[in-house]
Amino acid sequence: MPTSSSSTSAPPSSVSSTSSSAPSTSSTRFECRRPLHQYIAKRGYPDITPRNDYEVCQLSCGNYRPQIDGDFHIWIEKRLLLDARLICPEDVERGKEIVLSRSKARLDKPVRISGFKPMPGDNEDVHICPIPNSEFSVRLFGKYMEDKRQYGLDFIRTSTGEPENSPFQYDLFTVPDPDTQTAKPMMRPRSGRLFSVESGLGLRADQIYPGAEKFILSEGMCCLLKRKGHRDVYFKVPVRLRSKVPFKYDADILEFKATPIASE
User: Could you tell me if 78 and 157 lie in one domain?
Assistant: First the structure.
């Protein structure tokens, strides 16, 4: 059965990312990692303002555990000291400079991403439709996923716009396109249940960071949302408008007209 998939998912960001120095379109790549990691750090630790790139890296990786590690500033100074001693035991101050410099270099690198949820106020290629008889909406977000012809899907509370993990009991399926006028007779789309990225990675519901759960869907995919005691909800993933690709064959063209079929 089809499953939604992505390369990785880690709390608190639920971001699939790989660093890259290869040429890429700007629509699929951040020019540097810093805004991404700053956002992740803010999501995970809203009451902490990092003072440098080293602190951003530590927070975005979820290394700080408030209930265990105590005061953040005391903890981060101990962490920096430990890392500095490992790098340059004969000169700790020089070691600190190297650690901070490496953190800056890491965040200066570009990063390609997939399945990154929209930042607050970012409505580019975001589509939201309320679910009938529900407090929630289906949200599709496609920024940075253009080259893969994909969209991410999650469920958000309609009143606040905040994502929630499995806010109600449901099953999500991919189904054949009901538009028989354009269906391919010998290559019908497969039908089957869809699973979230996190579920596909083997995470239990209590292991998924709040609001991080998502599905990865392909352009044009037809979906059916089933909820017990409610009518099914059907939707089709948008297909982005693209420039027409020039005809690439040096050949004469034969055109055949389809014969209309009477409705039964």
Answer: no
How far apart (Å, rounded) are the C-alpha atoms in residues 195 and 171?
Answer: 9
Which two tokens mark 201?
A: 């990675």
Residue 145 confidence (pLDDT) above 50: yes
Domain-located, residue 200: yes
pLDDT, tens only, 157-174: 999 999 999 999 999 999
Inside any domain, residue 21: no
User: Which region holds residue 95: left if phi is over 0, alpha if psi is between -120 and 50, else beta?
Assistant: alpha
Prior bond of 12 cis (ω within 30°): yes
Please check whether residues 126 and 218 belong to one and the same domain: yes
Average pLDDT over residues 169-183: 80
52-103 pLDDT per residue, tens: 999 999 998 888 999 999 999 999 999 999 999 999 999 999 999 999 999 9
CA distances from 246 to 241, 243, 249, 251 (A): 15, 9, 9, 13
Q: Which of 61, 60, 62, 99 is nearest to 78 (CA)?
A: 99
Give residues with Cβ within 8 angstroms of 216, minimum separation 6: 4, 5, 6, 114, 115, 150, 151, 152, 153, 197
